[in-house]
Each structure stands twice: as C-alpha cells, then as structure tokens.
Write a structure and sequence with these properties.
The chain has a single domain, classed as 3-Layer(aba) Sandwich (Aminopeptidase), CATH 3.40.630.30. The chain contains 4 helices and 7 strands. β5, α3 and β6 form a beta-alpha-beta unit. The longest helix is centred in the first third of the chain and has 18 residues.
Length: 180
C-alpha cells in the first residue's frame, strides 16, 4: 500500500490534451467493463491470485452502480475523441479511531487503456481524485498497487506515492499439513 499526502502537480498535462474528465454515465458502463478487463487480464498474467470469478462482470457493474449512488464515492471517466479511455473510483472512509487522521481517501481503481498510457491521462485522473478526496475531508490518500506491476509501481511513485504498509497473503494449504 502506498500513501501520499500531497496532491501531484496542478493543471492539465499538455500530453493529455483533448481528454475530458466527467462523472461516469450509464452509456459508459460497457466500455468501462472492457477497460477493467484489460487491467485485470494484465494482473492475472502477473499473479494468478487475480483470477476473476464466474460472475465478475455482474459484480463489477454492481460495484460501479453502488459507488455512483453514494456520496462518499466518486466514479470519473476520461473521455478522448468521444470514447472512455480511463476511469477512477475513489472514496473517503473513516480511519480507525485510534489514529489521529480521521478520514482516509482511497483511489480504489485507476485504469487507463494501454494505447493511452504515458499521455497524462492517469495523472489527470489522480489529480481530479485527490482534489475531490481533499474536498470531501480526506486527510491522506492511499492506493493498493500490485507488487509485480512495475509500471503501476513506477506510476504511483511518480505521483508521490510512498511506502507505508505491505499487504501479504498467507498460503492456507501450508496450515493443512498434518491435520487430518
């Protein structure tokens, strides 16, 4: 997990010229699903633990619909030449009461189609998300980044991401040995 407390540079990147950010609309959902599948296919190649369930598409649509209906979530889409080329899902959630920071912003999902990467679209989506998260009361912003996704690791570090926590998974079969 990475955290950063400072928003990235301000203003639109000249490389992202022509890209418009707006709230996601019903007409965008099928293309958002395609973008999400592109991202998930990449993650499955990196680590099979990202394998999708049989009903992943329905769950993705439900997740987006739920996020769109809540005040503490925001779903934004990047449009270029009339088509979605990226999206971001952000939310503000309460932190554990034992910590000084009361509200944590999360960028849950950030996806840019491969043909539009390295053109400033991701930066625009992050800047937009961070502005909204701060306005919504977030005192810091966190993201999960797949350990083996070096492109994403580099991107988030360029955006100001700093190591904060490591999330680990345990192989449960290791605990089955000798217990029969």
């Amino acid at each position: 997990m990475h955290a950063f407390n400072q928003p990235p540079g301000s203003g639109q990147s000249p490389r992202a010229a022509g890209v418009v950010l707006r709230d996601v609309q019903d007409a965008d959902l099928t293309e958002l699903l395609g973008l999400w599948h592109e991202l998930m296919d990449l993650h499955v190649e990196l680590d099979p633990r990202f394998a999708l369930s049989d009903n992943a598409d329905q769950r993705f649509f439900h997740y987006i619909d739920t996020a769109r209906s809540r005040d503490d979530y925001r779903v934004r889409v990047a449009i270029w030449r009339g088509r979605p080329v990226g999206f971001a899902v952000s939310c503000v959630l309460p932190n554990s009461p034992v910590y000084r920071a009361r509200w944590i912003g999360y960028i849950n999902d950030l996806c840019v189609t491969s043909s539009m990467r390295k053109r400033g679209v991701g930066e625009l989506l992050v800047e937009d998300a961070v502005r909204w998260l701060k306005k919504a009361g977030a005192e810091s912003v966190e993201v999960y980044v797949a350990r083996h996704n070096q492109v994403a690791q580099s991107f988030w570090r360029r955006m100001g991401g700093q190591d904060y926590l490591d999330r680990m998974t345990l192989d449960l079969s290791r605990f089955d040995r000798g217990r029969r």
